[in-house]
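Following up on my earlier thread - several people asked me to post the actual chain instead of describing it. Fair enough. Here it is, all 303 residues.
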Amino acid sequence: MKLDFLPERFIRSLEFLKFESLHELRLRAEKPSIIDYGGKKYLGECGVSQNDEDILIPKLKEIADIVFNACERSIYAHNDKLKAGYVTVNGIRIGICGRAVTEGEKITTLKEFCSLNIRFPHQVKNCSLNALPFLIDSDQIYSTLVVSPPGGGKTTFLRDLARLISQRGVANNVLIIDERDEICCMQQGVPYLDVGCCDVYSGVSKEWGIINGIRTLAPDVIMLDEIITKSDCAALEYAIGCGVSVIATVHSLGWNELFDKPLLKNVMNSQIFDRIVVLSKRNGVGTIEGVLNGDGKLLWEGK
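Reply from S.P.:
Thanks for posting it. Predicted structure:
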C-alpha cells in the first residue's frame, strides 16, 4: 500500500515493520509517534523504538504536509471530507485534529492541523465465515447489523462478508456504499482490497447511494459502514421497505447498549434487522462474540 503522503523518515521506519500487523499510526505535533503494532508502541527510526532517543517526533509542518499530500495538494477539492474531520488517501483514512473555521454554527473547514490518526485497512479473509451460515437462508440474506466498539473490526468483517456473499452466489447483485473509501479502498476504479464481484459507490452519502442504487442497479443486498445520522437510519428503512436486504455496521459495546442510543432506539424497536453480529477485541480485533436474531435471542456463540 502506498504511503507516499508521509514524510520520508516515517516511510523508512515503517518499512521495518510487517504491514499486516500495523493497524494505526498516531502523530501529534512535537510529541512521540505511537503505533498500534500488536499493542501500543513508540515508532522509532527503524520501526518499533528501542530507546527514547530514537523515537520519531513529528514537527507541526510535517503534520500539515501530510494533510496537504493526502488531499492531493488541493485542500479545497477535499474540503467536504476535511470539515468532517478526516481525509482518505490510497484507501487509508486519516482522522484530523485542528482549528475549526466556522460561519455561525456551521463548520466550513479545518486549519492549523495538530494531530493525526492514520488507520491502515487490512484484508482478513474468512474472518466472517463462522457467522455466515446464520446470516443467510436458502433464498435470502438477512438484514444484518454488525456491532463493535471503535477499532473492533467492523469494516474488516463487512469487507470479508461482501467477498463471501458475492463469490458464493448467495446474492446476484451486491452494492457497497463506501462513503469514506475504507471498505474497498478504490484506486482508479479498481478495489485495492478483495470484496468479490460487487458494485461500488465510493465517496457518496449512504442516503444518496441507497436511493440511486435501488433505482438504477437493482441490488439484492446493500452493504454500508457506520450508521451515524438520522438520514442514515431513514435510508436503511427505505431500502428494507423496498425489499432489499441491508448489512450495516454501528459503534456499540453490544446488544443492550443499542437501545440506549437515541439514534438507534427506534430502529431497534422496529426490528428492521433480522440478525445482529456482535464483535469485540476480547481475543484480538474482530472476535465474534455471537450472532443474535432481531429479538436478541442468541443463535450462535462465538468461540
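The two ends are 32 Å apart (CA to CA). That should answer part of your original question.
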